Amino acid sequence: MAFSHLDTEGNAYMVDISEKTPSKRAAKACATITFSSEQHFLTLKDSCNKKGDVLTVAKLAGIQAAKLTAQLIPLCHSILMSHIDIQFQLSEPKKQIEIISTCKTNNATGIEMEALTAVSIAALTIYDMCKAFDKNMIISDIKLLEKTK
Amino acid sequence: MAFSHLDTEGNAYMVDISEKTPSKRAAKACATITFSSEQHFLTLKDSCNKKGDVLTVAKLAGIQAAKLTAQLIPLCHSILMSHIDIQFQLSEPKKQIEIISTCKTNNATGIEMEALTAVSIAALTIYDMCKAFDKNMIISDIKLLEKTK
Amino acid sequence: MAFSHLDTEGNAYMVDISEKTPSKRAAKACATITFSSEQHFLTLKDSCNKKGDVLTVAKLAGIQAAKLTAQLIPLCHSILMSHIDIQFQLSEPKKQIEIISTCKTNNATGIEMEALTAVSIAALTIYDMCKAFDKNMIISDIKLLEKTK
Amino acid sequence: MAFSHLDTEGNAYMVDISEKTPSKRAAKACATITFSSEQHFLTLKDSCNKKGDVLTVAKLAGIQAAKLTAQLIPLCHSILMSHIDIQFQLSEPKKQIEIISTCKTNNATGIEMEALTAVSIAALTIYDMCKAFDKNMIISDIKLLEKTK
Amino acid sequence: MAFSHLDTEGNAYMVDISEKTPSKRAAKACATITFSSEQHFLTLKDSCNKKGDVLTVAKLAGIQAAKLTAQLIPLCHSILMSHIDIQFQLSEPKKQIEIISTCKTNNATGIEMEALTAVSIAALTIYDMCKAFDKNMIISDIKLLEKTK
Amino acid sequence: MAFSHLDTEGNAYMVDISEKTPSKRAAKACATITFSSEQHFLTLKDSCNKKGDVLTVAKLAGIQAAKLTAQLIPLCHSILMSHIDIQFQLSEPKKQIEIISTCKTNNATGIEMEALTAVSIAALTIYDMCKAFDKNMIISDIKLLEKTK
Question: Cβ separation of B71 and C85 shorter than 8 Å?
């Protein structure tokens, strides 16, 4: 039960992966954004039905952010991703959009942080695009769904 | 009830703030990260009590990310922040860390996205530093607390 | 008839704008991307009619690149833009997309380089998204249309 | 005849290259910048003959931009380049500078976008450095010359 | 005698400049790079006399790095610089290049860190360009020369 | 005795590493920051003894900068680092902090520039955090200690 990024004295420490073998790795993460009223959710849903750009902008933001993960999370290693995908599920009863990302790499370290960064920034982008009509959205349930190697 | 970043046909659109007057603006946002067991939470808490670097790394990551907000959120304007602060509250009963950011600017547009980005990346950084011993943390309750002008 | 970014000996030089007064400035630029056959152009046009994401991705790339102009063009000053817009015109007879950007700032220096960077990267993004079916697109007519102060 | 970066419903999509094998790949691209008068072209040429820094600045800007391609073109994969070169040809009869880039990688995906980005930003940099004396330059003929694997 | 970037408990802290008034500010900094032998220094000097690109590349790297200061130094505020200049002095007796930067801003905070970053990265760039023939260069005397307001 | 980054005419040139074989490589570099008085040095040392954040912030800044080396040093290749570490040694008699970095990669080119960038930015960050009480610190002795392959 040790910290991945602290040495024995509690100082920040980047893991040494120089002896790890590159291999196919993938990670899946999710996030949820909840609107404050049914009316606000329907405004978003209606825009999506008319092919408004909200979810496209969010997807691109998430993909771009995933590539910047090592600049954002201080002790992450830079890696090359072979694939990033982001999908959205709208749930009217819950007034929610669920965001799911999949990231793949052939490098020597896991990519759960990339998958988590992708959904977080995608969610913040939806927030940014809807904040003019809903000032009380909440982003939650950011978590790892799966990690394979 | 209009989208801040879509034109009338649903296309992505950046708001024109050229006629807005610069003024003192501030925003406060929060996020919560919940550990999956009391034992895991206590591992983190114990490290913090010994002045381990987890929260310092998270704070710096959040501050640095706030400065990059306009690169991360596609339709955000670049602004100059006059202050960014991030504070942490540990709650043992809830196995949670609450993260609170305050951002200030003297520019011509609000900075809630900077405050929200700061707490989101700070939370992801805590996740990154603790994921070796807790694989089931959840980040939630990312929301705006206050916006003043 | 002097170089804006060379000193009298021909060395690279960044203009000193410390005595210039901030004021409302705008610039408009354009670029054209030409497909190699009518069939290829119609593939793109058809996708746009069905609200495919090509032009949205290009618009976002152009907007994001405009914000990065000072990182891309070595002797450009960092500025804060108050607005960036990018519009597309499809011309079937010419097998072309014309891309037009408008950038605004209230800072102390012109923003034609931001407007030109926006259309250039938007054009490259269209190229990237269509290169699987047209390997002979050409980007041309990148020029300044208007500069006001 | 499919889009490389759209799924079947027209949504933005990043290609999955996780099954592709790394191999030596290269790409060559070009761009042209045309001055608005012979006099303006000769001002530039004369500066180059005296070893003024215009083309050096443009070369460096192009090399640096090539490294940033995946940040600029949203659906491009990050890759490691093993070589980037940029050369310039001055043509007095055409009042033009032709810019030619060569990029190499040993990764699992093509690098034409890097080569195209390099010449585009090099051309914009020449524009920036000459815009004080020529306000009507035009950048054109940005295209791929060669792609090998 | 307090730390500018620590709170009273020793935690990292970004100074709040929201009440400071924008004004003309400048800073000058220097750095020195010393070659390990006279022969190595003369190789560099000879290249400079023939207008080789070493110092131009170093100057551009320094200017570009100054613009990135707030991304490099965690608790620095983002500012807009109105001018950055870098000059080089070759001293044959000392086998040294002295690098001097001048930075200006009209913003609400000092820019000594930008001036110091500029000379540091310019020095590292000279190191990079000469390391094939001199493996024992030393960079020293990085310091602030002047700060005005 | 040739320049690594100039062609035979003295023009900037990026080395072609496409034929080089990836292998384990490491580099160690150091830098020193000297305080202007014993009293100032003791202020810093006292803060470190109380686990103040100065050195943690400097370490993170150095690690993050190492990842950005190819963006900072124009002719450096982008590489993936498998490890970055930064250690600090305080010397009261010398009123100095010595900063030592270790960088590792499995790529096809050396990483001394990453190790040198790490210590330089770490030193500048200490400068930034102490400049409120010591305006005359000097950074020196930036040099390569070791390079292995």
Answer: no
